[in-house]
TrEMBL record:
This is Polysaccharide deacetylase. InterPro entries: Glyco_hydro/deAcase_b/a-brl, NODB_dom, Polysacch_Deacetylase. PROSITE patterns: NODB. Residues 1-22 form the signal peptide. It comes from Marinomonas alcarazii. The keyword Signal applies. Its main location: secreted. It is found in: Secreted. It comes from the Bacteria.
């Protein structure tokens, strides 16, 4: 029989061991097509996808249900060690034809964000509700990617801010209703088309109780903005297993605050201020990279605050700054990314204040 003292010591050691194996962050992989004949920029071949999934299994990763894991993180509950989630955008039928059998064989849960318009008109290139019901039986979850996959921050010609917002609300609410109608429930998750959102759109998501994803890379933690969550793209140029391994070992950048100056880039180079939490970090090894430009200039405002600045303005479209820093073990990288939109007058983007 164990004495009370020995029992307490054993319990404490067990708790410490469990805490050491727990994970307080989540990398989420983003796929689109699983096909050798679809556009390469948004595709993995079935062979590449098999390679990815085999690596997850053989390396001991725990593939978890996305919504459940997000709920746990938000509530500061630990996830299993080496947790990762799998997601797809756009509800392409080749996910069912080529991706689903691979996931099913390995008992991996997954989430598909669907844009409902091509599903409702029964496009042969997109999933059917019947296929979704079958996939649900083997860990598939279906979430919101709007009706028509619009640029959510662009107004139609002559459209008022109020009419634009009403249209965006319909894009979201219609899919929520269809998920309930055809599948019985909605997980209350959304992926922004093209990753684009602003404060007003994100506030709408919060009011509806919907967790939403952008297209900035990084890992989710309790400190994340749950109306603008990061994911790691794993298709096209990002399909190499070597780069995927680095992302799967990423940790959230230990930030106290960030200031990117808004969602839009203008005629001046963008900059972002990052303030780090107290702790022993390899701040001298921090590196920030600007899409299409190389390294950003780093200016240390104080011991724990840095300003990263691009060398030149972005062109029209979306641009980003990615920052990485090795942790003290050297086995993981802290990861942070921010995306800006550089619009042109003819695209009809809402103003920063809208």
């Amino acid at each position: 029989m164990l004495s009370k003292v020995h029992y307490s010591i054993l319990l404490g050691a067990l708790s410490a061991s469990m805490a050491a194996q727990a994970q307080d962050y989540l990398p989420v992989l983003q796929y689109h097509h699983v096909s050798a004949s679809s556009p390469k920029s948004t595709s993995v071949t079935p062979e590449q996808f098999t390679e990815h999934m085999d690596y997850l299994k053989n390396a001991g990763f725990q593939v978890v249900d996305l919504r459940s894991a997000l709920d746990d993180l938000k509530a500061n509950k630990p996830l299993p060690e080496k947790s990762v989630a799998i997601s797809f955008d756009d509800a392409y039928r080749n996910i069912y034809q080529a991706g689903f059998p691979i996931l099913k064989e390995r008992n991996f849960p997954f989430t598909v964000f669907i844009n409902s318009e091509p599903v409702e008109r029964k496009s042969r290139s997109f999933l059917t509700w019947e296929q979704m019901k079958e996939m649900e039986q083997f860990g598939g979850v279906f979430a919101n990617h709007t009706i028509s996959h619009p640029y959510m921050l662009r107004k139609e010609k002559g459209e008022t801010d109020e009419a634009w917002m009403s249209r965006m609300e319909k894009e979201v609410d219609t899919v929520e209703s269809l998920l309930v109608k055809h599948l019985g429930s909605s997980p209350k998750m959304l992926a922004y088309p093209y990753g684009e959102s602003n404060g007003r759109i994100r506030s709408m998501m919060a009011e509806k109780g919907i967790m939403a994803f952008g297209q900035q890379s990084g890992v989710v933690s309790a400190d994340s903005d749950f109306e603008n969550l990061p994911r790691f793209p794993a298709s096209g140029a990002y399909a190499k297993l070597s780069t995927l391994k680095t992302k799967l070992n990423a940790k959230p950048m230990p930030l106290l605050s960030e200031n990117a100056g808004g969602d839009y880039a203008g005629e001046e180079p963008v900059s972002i201020n990052l303030t780090f939490k107290e702790g022993k970090y390899r701040l001298k090894d921090l590196a920030c990279y600007v899409s299409g430009q190389g390294k950003a200039t780093l200016e240390w405002v104080s011991e724990r605050e840095v300003k990263a600045t691009a060398s030149k303005p972005f062109g029209v479209g979306r641009g980003r700054i990615n920052c990485t820093m090795p942790d003290n073990s050297g086995k993981h990288y802290y990861w942070y990314s921010n995306v800006w939109i550089r619009s042109s007058a003819d695209q009809g983007y809402v103003s920063e204040k809208s």
